[in-house]
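Q: Joint fold for the lines below.
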Amino acid sequence: MACQAAGEEPPRPCCNGYSELPSAEVRRALAQYRPEKRSREAAAEGGELPALEDAYLSILEGLGENPARQGLRLTPRRAAKAMQFLTKGYQETIEDILNDAVFDEDHDEMVIVKDIDMFSLCEHHLVPFFGKVVIHLRKYFLLLFFPRIVEIFSRRLQVQERLTRQIALAITEALKPAGVAVIIEASHMCMVMRGVQKMNSRTITSTMLGVLREDPKTREEFLTLIKN
Amino acid sequence: METGKLGALREQLPPRTVSCNGYAPEEKPPPPPPAPSRPLEKPRYSQGTSSQCLDSWKEERTRSEEDNEMNLPSLAAAYTTILRSLGEDPERQGLLRTPWRAATAMQFFTKGYQETISDVLNDAIFDEDHDEMVIVKDIDMFSLCEHHLVPFVGKVHIGYLPNKQVLGLSKLARIVEIYSRRLQVQERLTKQIAVAITEALRPTGVGVVIEATHMCMVMRGVQKMNSKTVTSTMLGVFREDAKTREEFLTLIRS
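A: Joint structure:
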């Protein structure tokens, strides 16, 4: 990993870009997309499935339900597999999907991909949050990979601010474009289904890097285009 | 006369395949709570010897506040295991209190197990000489799919034809809350709401329509973003009379 090559001890485990790291290390940490090899392989082989199933079984019992009734008999397994699917981003990396899909095209204008559906899990309550992602890029890149980049980082235990930043930094590290902007608008079930219970609230986060951060005119053009 | 009408309503209910919390009659109900938080109350709307299914709306609680406190550590431990099994580090800052938050959230999402209809209805049944349809629509509903433990969210529309008694309107939403804040199947949820209103009010007819989005279909599995599931239960005159049903369905659509 890059931080090991630099002679530093890797943050533990560093694949999620934790906010307590200093900013230079944040960029390095965010660039380290590979989770620990063991957990990745083990999860891929389903080695953790029995532990997850047992945990869900004890959750059902702890909630006062009867896990032996027909509707719940296979629920621990289904819930465990569902949770593994919802966090499958830990097993995926940017390198997996790039595969020489970067093309040098003489295209200097904006590329915007919007309304990318995003589904993630709030790391504080383990409850879904979902919404739409807009990505802007000033470099040609095979467009179908934008949703896949969103998938890699959203299918994890996340915080919306970090998710936005990770997508932007991942694109920056991989493609080195002139500018990148990522905006996410999402609805958090932890606010809608519990807690304050505000049905219609939406959270919007954005990260602008490069020319979009520095040049207000470019930023304004981008924001106008996505408003339509 | 009321007994006759109730008997007629009962005959129209589908054959008993599920009971109280959705348990099939031959399956074991959950164990009783170790220490009830309140002394057991006489059900307000006792019907004498009713069938097991139709007593669902006045079933005893399966959970109390003490149960919640007692079970919280084991729930939190289960969530810690889940975090570890997913390859995450439960010691990192963002996840340090997550097991407790997730356990408390899950207890909130299933708080319907702590409540019964008789708790909620109290004195909100009034004698009114009103025999036109009463509809409360667009009641937000949030529930948990019992198969995947993933939320499904939507709207509930309830209509009933009073028979000399009306219910406080917010109590309809409370009935929805009690049954939706459980591990549910949308079909069962719809029927439980309809049966509860029937038992409480003995109206001429009840109609319940639920339109919901299932995250287990949207976020995983087939991943169909825009799909909605619609279920309905029509009892009494809503089932027998097509015009009444049509009026109800038209009004909830407008």
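Q: Anything notable?
A: The beta strands of chain B are 125-127, 134-145, 151-161, 165-167, 183-184, 205-214, 229-236. The two ends of chain B are 35 Å apart (CA to CA).
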